[in-house]
Queue: 2 jobs
Job 1
Amino acid sequence: MKDKVYVLDTNIILQNVQNLSRISDNSTNTIVVPETVLLELEDKKKLTNELGFYSREFARLLAKMKIKEVDYKLGFKVVKLFNDELTLHIISKDKYESEIEQTHLSESNDKRIIEVAAIAQDYYKGSQTIFLSLDVYARTFALFKGIKSETLHDDKSTVPDFKFMKTIKVDSSLFNSLDQAEIKEYDEEYSKENFSYIFESEDGNSCHGIIINERINLLTEADFKSLQVKPVNLKQKLFMKAILSDMFELLVIDAKAGSGKTLMSMVSAMRLIDLGHYDKIVYVRNSIESLDKGADIGYLAGNDEKFRIYNMALQDTLEFIAKKHLKKSESKENKESIESKISELTSKYCIETLWPGEARGRTLSSAIVIMDEWQNSSEKTTQLILSRLDESCMAIVIGSNRQIDNLYLNKYNNGLTTLLKQTRNEHDEINMFAIELEKAVRGKFAEFTERIFERNQNTK
C-alpha cells in the first residue's frame, strides 16, 4: 500500500488541530501545509474566538517540532519538520501563477494552495497525494488540476436515528398505576435514549411521561400551573417537565427554528431559580457565524454593543416573557414598560451572557447554563464550556442541525451532534435527557415556510 501525502487546506486545521494526528496516523502519512495556509493561520492568530485558538495551537505545535532539512528545488522550497507523531512538510513557491485579488482573496488563496498540491503530486512520486479540504469549491479546483481530493472522514460518518420518544400500547386500566412505575415493566426493550413515552390504549386514550432513573413520571397540568408562559404542545411539555424535575444535569435539544426552544429553556430556568434551586442563568452563544462574522466584529470582553447581534435571540425571549408579565394595558404601545420589565427580570434572575472566548479560567456555580445555537460550536468549544461548570450547575444545550452556519463544521462533527450521540450511553457522572422539537410554534409564517420549503425538499 502506497504511503499517502495529505495536502491540507486551512479549514482542516481551523476545524480542529487534532485532525493532524488522525491524518498522520503515527507518521505513516506525510502532511503538507502550503505556505498560503500558514499566512491564513497567521492572520487569524489574534482573534479571540475559536479560530484564533486553533491558529495559536498550530503555531505552538510548529514551535515544538524539529527541522529535519530544507530542500531547495527549482521554483519552490520544502521545509521538513517532525516530532514523535507527525511528519509535516511546509512548501513555498518562489512565484505563484495566481495573483492575489483582495476582492476575491479566498478564491485566490485556494488557487495558490492547489498550486502547491500540484507540486506535491510531482515531488512525492511513488506516494498517493490527496488534497484535503472541507470546501467543495476548493476540492473542485483541485480536480480541475487532476489532483485527488477528499474531505474529512468525519464528514462521511452517520448520524444515528434517535428514539428519544417512544409509543407503546398499554391497557387503559393500567393508566392509574403508571406513575412512578419502572419502565421495564411495560417496555422490555427500553433503552437509555428512550427519554419520553406516549402510552396508548386500544380505546383511544393516552397519557405521556418522561423517564427519570428508569421510572415513569407522568405529565400533569399541575406541572406548569405556576408558569407565566406555558408549553403549547406535547414535546414542549416533556422538555419543560424534564427541566423542572431538576433530575437531569445535561439536557440536549435538537429543535427546528421557531419551536420555542430558547423560550421554554428560559421560562423553566426562571422557575427553578424561583424555587431556590439555582442562583443565576448564563446564556452562551458562539460568535462564529456564516461568513465568519465572529472575526469581523473583533469582539472584546465586556463590549455588549459589539456583541449585541449574537444575543438578539435572548433579547427577543426576554421581551416576550416581559410582555406576559405585564398587564395588557401596560405593555400595549409602551416600550418603556417592557424595557423596565426586561431589566427587572435580568436583575432578579441574575441573567448574564457568556461568549466562549471569555470562559477560560472561569468556574460557574449554581447556574443554569443555556448553550444556544450549538450546532455552530465544535467539540472543543463544547468541552471548554461544560468543563467550566461545577456540580451545582445544569446545562441545557439547544440547536438545530438544519441550520449550520459555521463554515468549519457540519452535522456530523459539531458539538450538538456529539452530545446527542452520547445520549445512547450511560454516564456515571451525569444524567442526560434529550428530545427533538420539530414543530414550529411561531405562527402562520413559520407553518407556511415549513410547508413550502422543507416539505418540498424532502420530496425531491
Note: Residues 159-218 form one domain.
Job 2
Amino acid sequence: MTRKLTLIAAVLAVALSAAAGSALANGGAHAAGSKTISVRDSFFSPKSLTVSKGTTLRFVWAGRLPHNIVGPGTNIGARVRGSVSVRARSGSYICTIHRGMKVSVRVR
C-alpha cells in the first residue's frame, strides 16, 4: 500500500510541475499582475513601461493638481486624490488638462 501511495504522489508531482511550467511558458495569468503609475503634478511616473498581457494598471494620484486620464479604452475624469485600476492596453495614456503629460504602455 505504501509503494502505491508513493508512486501516486510521484506521478502527481510530475504532472503538477509540468502544468505549472506550461502555464508560465504560455504567459499564464499569474505572470501578469499589476503595475502602479503615479499621477504627479504635470507628469506620470514612470513615463513608459512594458507589461504582460492581462496586467492591471493602477493609476495613483500623488500631486496637488487635478488630472484626468484618457487612453486606449480608458476615460477617467479629473481628480486630485485616489486611485483607479484599468486593464492595460498598448498605447498612450494622457492627461488632457496638462499638455505633454503622457505615459506610453506596451502590452506583450
Note: Residues 2-25 form the longest helix (24 residues).
